## 1
Amino acid sequence: QVQLVESGGGLVQPGGSLRLSCAASGSIFSINAMGWYRQPPGKQRELVAAITSGGSVNYADSVKGRFTIARDNGKNTVDLQMNSLKPEDTAVYYCRIVADNRLYWGQGTQVTVSS
């Protein structure tokens, strides 16, 4: 069984920064893609950023230049550094991985950007 544990969410003022972390544990042979998704209130879940095992990254247009995704293959972790946060970044953020051809989601962590 694979588990994803997320941390780092919270309340931040506009223009501030947060760092989200996600650690995968359990019976894992290899992890392909790792990424972060978010679900704003009343909206559908959307891709924020993703990174392949080779290090190729993909960002949503709305976060380019502000967010940075990084992974540590040795520790099975993926982080999301979020800078210059805006109120529209408010959402529940979910970690997602593809490991051994299976898809796993974290439980979600709330990020609220408000003054």
## 2
Amino acid sequence: QVQLVESGGGLVQPGGSLRLSCAASGFGFASYAMNWYRQAPGKERELVAAISSAGTTTTYADSVKGRFTISRENAKNTVYLQMNSLKPEDTAVYYCNGYMGREYWGRGTQVTVSS
């Protein structure tokens, strides 16, 4: 079955960096666009970044443009989110997402930006 497993979250100081990974299995990964979402406490889940199946097209939320980079390695069935210049407002649970006939979500990884 489809599985999406996020990793790489943690506690980081403002201005720091983290790299999230999402390992996918159970479907033809290279054929599907993938997304990263986040949800902060008391807020709705929001789309952070998206990448096309071949990795040639990416889109970002305005709040992360210039700081975050989404990428993928289809040979490893993995999508990444490189997060630089992190701010306290980036604190959230980050989720990997894809639509493969229906929506699939990982369990999420916590990112906390605090001094």
